[in-house]
Amino acid sequence: MTDSKNYEEFLHQYGLKNTRPRKRVLEILFGQEELLTAEEIYQELLEAGETVNVSTVYRVLELFTEKKLVEKTFLPETRKYAFSLRMPGHVHYLICIRCHKKVDLSGCPLSEYERKVAANTGFDIIGHRLELYGLCKECRDKDAAGGTEQHE
Amino acid sequence: MTDSKNYEEFLHQYGLKNTRPRKRVLEILFGQEELLTAEEIYQELLEAGETVNVSTVYRVLELFTEKKLVEKTFLPETRKYAFSLRMPGHVHYLICIRCHKKVDLSGCPLSEYERKVAANTGFDIIGHRLELYGLCKECRDKDAAGGTEQHE
DNA sequence: GTCGTTGCAAACGGTTTGCAAATCA
DNA sequence: TGATTTGCAAACCGTTTGCAACGAC
After folding, report:
1. If you count residue pairs, one on A and one on B, with CB atoms under 8 Å apart, how many are there?
2. CATH of segment(s) B4-144
3. Between chains, do B126 and A94 touch, taking CB under 8 Å as contact?
4. Considering CB atoms only, which of A113, A118, A140 is closest to B124?
5. CA distances (Å), A33 to each of A3, A9, B6, B46, B138, in order?
6. Each residue's pLDDT tens digit in chain B (152 positions)?
7. Cβ of B55 < 7 Å from strand D?
8. B93 CA to chain A: closest CA distance, Å?
9. A14 touches strand C (CB under 7 A)
10. How far is CA A27 from the centre of its chain?
11. pTM over 0.70
């Protein structure tokens, strides 16, 4: 899954031409579990020695988003968009407020709720957005270590 | 609730000085059920004959947000922030994608879900954000009228 | 060869900021 | 009067766009 050929196939499956910037952006998204902003992706490309333009990165990400290949998420704290590969079933996230790690949650408790709300309000519900915020285990442990001066 | 004196009391209760811009912004927020962007609030002020500056509107809204007097919501479609009076219990919204009307939903289906997720992931869940998107009855009716060429 | 894609640089637009003048308590 | 708040204009910054050159197929 990590060699260039597979990214080409991947792009092809989504009806997209194989270009150098697209493969590289895809490569970064595959290698990263967390949300990445356009700027971060651009920086990683530069560090990898790529000569690519910011606007190209934005255009590629926009294209990927349109084709449902990636998901675009707004991060309120920094007022930026972040991107991540869109895997089937990844609809709900748990986001650590400290390290921004994103955890996928399978299963959705809202379908029944949506039905109820639709009935009560007369709305056609066409979608929802659910984010849970919290501290992941690692960050919580660091907190505990620092706060109470436990060993290390 | 509509005369100037009450806005002054309101501001005072939140520990804020009474200034003309603040009272006027508050007045607009009280008179509007829907989400308003900073720009929209600014425009309403101009139309009402106020001589106020955009940056003042932003500063007032930021202050109100800090003091939990209003709630700041990001509208993904237009990439703008919108504001509304923060009333106790208004935690979940139903938002019409067409006219941006906001409907408050009482009751939250997520507490139990949060507990389950916390147990499964090891996160401390400290909050969530839930938005349902859809078409309100009015907009849906307009759609139907336009789309199928019904009377009118 | 043709059309889509990229690089470049400039624009865009919502929001923020520095500073001096005005205003509130 | 002394601390805050406002107006103004300019900056900011993430993102978008027009256009000419480039590259995929």
Report:
1. 94
2. 1.10.10.10
3. no
4. A140
5. 18, 21, 52, 47, 42
6. 445 567 888 888 889 999 999 999 999 998 876 788 999 999 999 999 999 999 999 999 999 988 888 888 777 667 788 888 875 433 455 555 554 554 545 455 566 666 666 666 666 666 666 666 666 665 666 555 654 333 32
7. yes
8. 10
9. no
10. 14
11. no
